[in-house]
Amino acid sequence: MWYFVSPRIVFGEGALDALDELEGKRALVVTDANLVKTGLLNPVKDHLDKAGIEVHVFDQVEPDPSVQTVLKGAAIAEKLAPDWIVGLGGGSPMDAAKAVWILYERPDLEPAAINPFIKLGLRQKAHLLTIPTTSGTGADVTWGIVLTDTEAQRKMGLGNRENVADIAIVDPQMAAGMPPRLTADTGLDALTHAVESYTCTWRTDVTDGLAIEAARAVLEYLPRAYADGSDMQAREKMHNAATCAGLAFGNAMASMAHATGHVLGAVFHVPHGRAVGLFLPYTIEFGAREAPERFAQMAAFTACSDKGGEKAARKLAEAVRDLCHKLGSPVSIAETGIKKDAFEARLEKMVDDAFNDTQIVTAVRTPSFDELRQLFVYAYNGKSVDF
Amino acid sequence: MAFKFPSDEWIKDLARQLNASPSYEKSAKDWEGDFIFIAEPDKTYPQEAYMFLGLYHGKSTDAAMLKSKDERPAQFVIRAHAAVWRKVIEGKLDPIQGMMTRKLKLEGNMMKIMRYPKAAQEIVACCAKVPTDFGD
Known about the structure:
The complex is a heterodimer of chains A (387) and B (136).
Chain A: E1 8-11, E2 26-30, H1 33-37, H2 41-50, E3 54-58, H3 67-80, E4 84-89, H4 91-105, E5 127-132, E6 144-149, E7 154-159, E8 167-170, H5 180-199, H6 205-227, H7 232-251, H8 256-268, H9 272-290, H10 293-301, H11 309-327, H12 340-355, H13 369-381
Chain B: E1 3-4, H1 8-19, H2 22-27, E2 35-40, E3 49-56, E4 59-66, E5 76-81, H3 82-89, H4 95-100, E6 105-107, H5 110-114, H6 117-129, E7 132-133
Parallel strand pairs in B: 1-7, 2-5
Antiparallel strand pairs in B: 2-3, 3-4, 5-6
């Protein structure tokens, strides 16, 4: 027994027009100041105006949003009494919007208490709508929320199936202005969601198709979107792929590349998508030594290899590395510019933290502590996993 | 020789397996919290059974079959039908997925358990090492 949850998804060119028909009185748009500056708020506002919805904006969401920020947003919502919360932006504003919505609906809850095992009873005051402006996080369609407790200096993985958005507007025009580096980093995040949701132990029959299509599309269209941001076909395919991959991993799970990428990002501030994409070929090779089948299938579906077994699985790892080369993305930790002595000084902490990351448990091959340490060292040196 | 599940011998052997596991010791080195596992009756086991497992800093401190849930205090109580426990022990049901779908019902701080996913996985791995007789 398992679940598949999803918002109603409006996608493709012109999807933003669906806002014209939204019913409601007042919306609180949760976003960041940079996005307002780039003008991406304007079309959203225009469409909501057309729908007769009064628009208020909370644009104080920072990268890696804090508990304190979402509490501030929830207090504003409490005063304004919106019937729509709109998450506009990349993963951070959309995660913040989910948390603001929950805390607005449930002011009795501490943010840390938002977990999958309780009944939230949402949708008494408002509904949630998400509009992604990057093509990678999948946060528009997932229920997970990552918040940072700046006082305790820790990240918290929160969320509940109830807090998945009611509507996701996936309009490629909203991502068309992404600079190449952001296009690459977020695209690698989408690829990692797709590969890991298909190959992890929590994979499901219902999510497999989404994962395969997302991986195939990223491998084909990400180099194009990176090379030419005005290639709207590539932009649209990437935007849809990110949402498909979000549906896949949001309803299955991510795995070891996320567990290792999370700690590299937390310790050395490597952007999330770059970090997980860097680890992906290594974790594919590690898993494929004992359980190559799912990786080989994905290699076949994405036309990396027409054969089965470990060799085919390793072709998938090669394809990810080739993609990283095309995107100018690092394929080793050393290439990110992290000095060896700094890496070695934090190695034990990173292995320890990765070992206790929730997403390590879905790895198709369970690493021992020593194997995980070795994988970090191989990833530092850019050496293919042979153990 | 296989140990009947649930039984005093079975839970004691699980404690032995945990204490012999360097992986469990490493992954649960900061863990503090005892468990009571309740097997609800079904056709394979006719009466409710209570098993206590003491866990502290990567080691099992005690293990015993109890007469009732209240015989000893525990921070965590997990309840499921014997058939569900069997799926967990045989590796067919991930315990965290089991709790998310309420097949395994937890009393206690779920978020604390979620911070030790690897330890939970190691406990299941040790369960699989206990030679088990499910009575069929």
